[in-house]
Design goal:
10 helices, alpha+beta, single chain, globular
């Protein structure tokens, strides 16, 4: 099978290379915003959409104009990729409109917010150095070997550091799926009180993973830094220093979440062959929940964790089953199958039919594991 992976490392550029990265990101942002403004203007005036090829053909004339002659210093494929990203954003927008999903119209990019640029080809890696066209050989902190052929390379800024992300592809033998054995199955229910409640094996052995609450832990410091930033003169030296401190803290919180999700998902996939999780409409939960609950849901970052579980299980030939979004796992009794409505504030599940009493999240994890096992058996998976 074709295995796609991403490898991300921190760059150690010189001062000149750091400034070139910022210049490349600025050029990419400029073309993206210019292309977006151009498409909006043409649609409002003529009722038609501008294509990527038409905008790409304007690059040569843009480089010859005095006001934008500085684009000649930027690698041509970086500029083309910025327009491709814009075209992809519009394709996703139109596809969401047709499918009835929330459209998400492309937005203008802001300086200092997710600064990045991309090379579709031409990047070479030699030991702990990477060659970026028109920037040169840049050292990076290579923590592991890069597997597969590099297809795309993205340079992005997080906080005060630049990172290089390689998208690779490689052909690997398709792993044989693990046999269906309930003793190697686990049901996972994610929540706020506990990040994850797991029921393992036929004995439903409970495991509770505490919620790290990285955002909540750093919230007092975030408020202090945000207050300092609001009192500075915008784009002044002190404002830039305050913004740098705030962005560094946000980047730290993001890395903590990613590290937690990767470590926990790896441990679960190594120890279980069947992973059953609940289907969640997280976007709807964030939109309709009260602000404190919405903040707690965003802080938990469930979708990142579930995504890690899914692709790691696929790589190892493990079974990953996600129940439907409307599957009432919290309402079903894990002992007798009776169904009852239960409020969010009720943390104990008490069955009126069989008098079973159990922790609400553990009951949901057991129900999800049973549902996942039944789906695998119905699909004819190997016992």
């Amino acid at each position: 099978m074709l295995l796609k992976k991403g490898f991300k490392f921190r760059l150690d550029p010189t001062q000149g290379q750091w400034e070139l990265c910022a210049q490349f990101a600025g050029a990419s942002r400029f073309l993206y915003n210019r292309g977006l403004e151009q498409r909006k203007a043409i649609y409002e005036a003529e009722g038609r959409s501008m294509t990527y090829f038409a905008q790409n053909n304007e690059l040569v004339s843009l480089k010859r104009q005095e006001a934008t002659s500085w684009l000649q210093l930027i690698h041509s494929q970086v500029l083309q990729q910025a327009l491709k990203n814009l075209d992809t954003a519009f394709q996703n927008f139109f596809q969401n409109v047709k499918s009835g999903k929330k459209p998400g119209f492309p937005r203008f990019k802001c300086k200092g917010l997710r600064d990045s640029f991309r090379y579709p080809q031409g990047v070479k890696v030699d030991g702990t150095s990477v060659y970026l066209p028109k920037i040169g050989w840049v050292r990076f902190r290579k923590s592991r070997e890069i597997e597969g052929a590099i297809k795309q390379t993205t340079i992005c800024r997080e906080g005060d550091h630049w990172y290089v992300a390689f998208s690779t592809e490689q052909e690997v033998p398709t792993p044989a799926f693990a046999p269906i054995n309930e003793d190697k199955a686990v049901g996972i229910d994610v929540g706020i009180k506990h990040f994850a409640t797991m029921a393992s094996g036929s004995a439903h052995i409970p495991t509770y993973v505490s919620n790290p609450r990285f955002f909540t832990k750093h919230l007092p410091r975030l408020r202090v830094l945000a207050r300092r930033l609001s009192k500075k003169v915008k784009f002044g030296k002190n404002w830039l220093k305050a913004k740098k401190q705030l962005s560094k803290l946000y980047a730290r919180i993001k890395r903590c979440r990613e590290d937690f999700a990767h470590k926990l998902s790896t441990e679960i996939v190594k120890n279980h062959d069947i992973i059953c999780v609940e289907g969640l409409d997280i976007a709807n939960l964030l939109e309709k929940s009260a602000r404190p609950l919405s903040r707690a849901i965003a802080d938990a970052s469930w979708r990142s964790f579930l995504r890690c579980l899914q692709y790691k299980a696929k790589e190892r030939g493990k079974h990953f089953v996600e129940t439907g979004r409307f599957f009432p796992s919290t309402q079903i009794c894990s002992a007798c199958g009776a169904n009852q409505k239960i409020g969010l504030e009720e943390r104990e599940y008490r069955c009126p039919s069989c008098a079973m009493s159990m922790d609400r999240d553990l009951n949901s994890a057991i129900v999800e594991k049973a549902a996942g096992m039944s789906v695998l058996k119905a699909c004819g998976a190997t016992p």
